Amino acid sequence: MVKNALILGANGSIAKIVVKQLLPQIGGQITNLTLLVRHPERLADLDLSNPNVHVVQADVTDTKQLARIMTGQSLVYANLYGANLGAQAQSVVAAMCQSHVTRLVWISANGVYGEIPGAYGRWNQAMLGDTLTAYADATKVVEASQLDYTLIRPAWFQDEDEIDYELTVKGQPFKGTEVSRKSVAALVVKLIDQPDQMIGDSVGISKPNTDGPAPRWYR
């Protein structure tokens, strides 16, 4: 279990589920939880009254400010998005090195290695386009770092109330086409609870038995 955790992009759909699951542990197993966002009002639906939960408004591309925020953190979980995701990753890695924080959990995307076979791989590439390129750029930055990282490559998100997933590792063909947000959040929480697990791994995550040419709601 980490003592101090920092979530980048804390208003993201996965990150919010992670926060809700971590809140009962704050002040106990987790000493402090820091939530970094550009728009704090987007966290209004969360109960953040715990004094050990800290909301910080910042942009991850401001490396100097980010390094100050990271000082004293035990783990960084990045749930970021955008056309400049590669630049965001460069700033995060640089800030972690400056602040001597080594453990990083980074949400990437399925398909960043061209690891999806067949029709679904072609569909995923066509649907994501430049977004997939941005995720791939960030993935390269994280993998080239000296950090203790875990990359998570989810299939397409759905909102079923379930935790049901299987993992593939880098070098294996990606399985499945969809995964619940709760499943991805459960994996992130597991890594926060057990930060010595999956270091240096890039894992694909999907719901078992969902293979096909596209997620079922697109067929």
UniProtKB/TrEMBL annotation:
Gene3D superfamilies given for it? NAD(P)-binding Rossmann-like Domain
Where the record annotates domain NAD(P)-binding, the positions are 9-195
Q: Which domain of life is it from?
A: Bacteria
Q: Cross-referenced PANTHER family, in alphabetical order? A: FLAVIN REDUCTASE-RELATED, UPF0659 PROTEIN YMR090W
User: Which protein, by its recorded name, is this?
Assistant: NAD(P)H-binding protein
**Record organism:** Lacticaseibacillus suilingensis
